[in-house]
Amino acid sequence: MLDETIKVRLSPEGTGAILLDAAGKAFDAHTQDKVWRLARELKFIHGVLETVPGMNNLMVVFDPLDVDAFIVEQSIRDLWDAPYRVEEPGRIIDVPVRYGGADGVDLEDFARAKSLSVDEVIARHTAPLYSVAAVGAMPGFVYLSGLDPSLAAPRLANARQGVPKGSVIIGGTQTGIMPITAPSGWHILGRTPLDLFDPDRERPALFRPGDRIRFVPEVPA
Fold first, then answer.
1. What are the residues facing 212 on neighbouring strands?
2. Whose CA is closest to 124, among 145, 150, 101?
3. Which is nearest to 13 in space by CA: 66, 51, 56, 46?
4. Is 67 helix (H, G, I), strand (E, B) or coil?
């Protein structure tokens, strides 16, 4: 039986995947730690092809011709119930950001809507040490936990069709970084020169789950 302290659900996704989902509750760091551990350990199960951690959920992809779905599901249950071990924290990576101006076209309006100064918004956005909960949605995109609740904001009513690569953005209760130029309805506060995804690198995605990010404002030249 799965850990009763964390309510989760297992559901088949076609014949070759199982989704573990704890999305019925708010984001929880303890649950996310268990998801990361499970993602690592399931890779050693015969027939498992890939594990894809999300925010408080995990997709497990397997070869149904090589392993029975029941075996995979039982492995998920057994590993989830294994005694919890606190893992070593991931890397801490500083992310330089040019806030405002042409790089952060929404910053002034965002600050005004929050009844804050631009400097206060920047200070609150750079104060936390964010955790990379998951990587996905688009190549290299990071789902970050740790945003100051005072900066949470509804997404724009009409999404922009081309938010520039490197844009540092806020949408709902999360902040993130655009790894490529793509549509988005999130508010643009600034931009980083870091390249979040490069298919020619040994590890194409710059960040991985468990890493921690610290936004550092760049001083204008």
1. 92, 131
2. 150
3. 51
4. coil
Structure-token pair, residue 173 = 């209760």
Specify the pTM: 0.71
pLDDT value of residue 56: 82
Half-sphere exposure of 160 (CA within 13 A, CB side): 17
Query: Given the structure tokens 């936990």, which residue do they identify?
Result: 145
Distance (Å, whole) CA 198 – CA 54: 21
Candidates 61, 37, 67; CA nearest to 49 is 61
Average pLDDT of the chain, as a whole number = 87
Query: What is the rounded CA–CA span in Å between residue 20 and residue 54?
Result: 10
Query: Region 38-65: what's the mean pLDDT?
Result: 88
Q: What is the rounded distance in angstroms from the CA atom of residue 9 to the CA atom of residue 24? A: 9
Residue for token digits 């990010």?
213
Contacts 24+ apart (CB under 8 A), 45-53: 45/71, 45/72, 45/75, 47/71, 47/72, 48/72, 49/16, 52/136, 53/133, 53/134, 53/209
Instruction: Tell me the CA distances in angstroms from 180 to 23, 60, 69, 116, 168, one per residue in order.
Output: 27, 26, 36, 30, 12
At 5, the amino acid letter reads T
Please choose, from the candidates 54, 59, 61, 80, the residue with its C-alpha nearest in 3D space to the C-alpha of residue 15: 61
**Distance between CA atoms of 136 and 153, rounded to whole angstroms?**
21
200 vs 22, higher pLDDT:
200
C-alpha to C-alpha distances, 196 to 67, 88, 118, 176, 188, nearest whole angstrom: 35, 23, 26, 11, 17
